[in-house]
Amino acid sequence: MQESDNFIAEQLLLMCAGAISDSLSTDIAIEYSKNTLLNEMPDEPQWVDGSGLSRYNLFTPRSVVWLWERLLKDYGKERLLPLLATSGVNGTLKNYYKAEVPYIFGKTGTLSNNHSLSGYLITKSGRMLIFSLMNNNYPTQSYPIKKKMEKILWQVRENY
């Protein structure tokens, strides 16, 4: 997940549909996932594709945090963190959140006038926090938004 590939994400969803049914339909995989894997999610998602490029995909920050909690519980940080973009090191976080020791591990999502970041933050005291920041409908480029998010997350890192 360090580098996003929306085409592969869509193909994986189709392959999941093929594994649980006799059809390659994203709708089948999405409904199955919502009813079994995500049935305890706090807010029901509106989910229409696997690529993440549709503006009709709607997940709340609370549900995204729930998903990160679930992944951590099911797979553990030793297995999960190396898969994620890492602050100042690789992926979409390579040029942001730089520190001597990386402290953000997560996933970004960007469409025009929308930018999100969620994942894990390791504080200076060693605590692991789960977060989800979503910004939408801003009338500017994403760079100033990313810099403000960086400032907020740095403050959390330093003070918790």
- The helix tally amounts to 5
H-E order = HHHHEEEEH
**Helical content (DSSP H or I, runs of 4+):** 40-55%
CATH architectural type of the largest domain: 3-Layer(aba) Sandwich
Instruction: Name the strands of the widest sheet in spatial order.
Output: 1-2-3-4
Q: Name the average pLDDT.
A: 94
Structural class: alpha+beta
CATH-wise, what's the superfamily of the largest domain? DD-peptidase/beta-lactamase superfamily
Shape descriptor: globular
Fraction of residues in β-strands: 15-25%
* CATH fold title of the largest domain: Beta-lactamase
Query: What is the number of E strands?
Result: 4
Q: Kindly provide the radius of gyration, computed on alpha-carbon positions and rounded to a whole number of angstroms.
A: 16 Å
Q: Biggest sheet, open or closed, and with what strands and sense? A: 4 strands, antiparallel
| Overall number of structural domains | 2
Model regions low in confidence, pLDDT < 50 over at least 5 residues: none
The CATH class assignment of the largest domain is Alpha Beta
Beginning-to-end CA distance, first to last residue? 27 Å
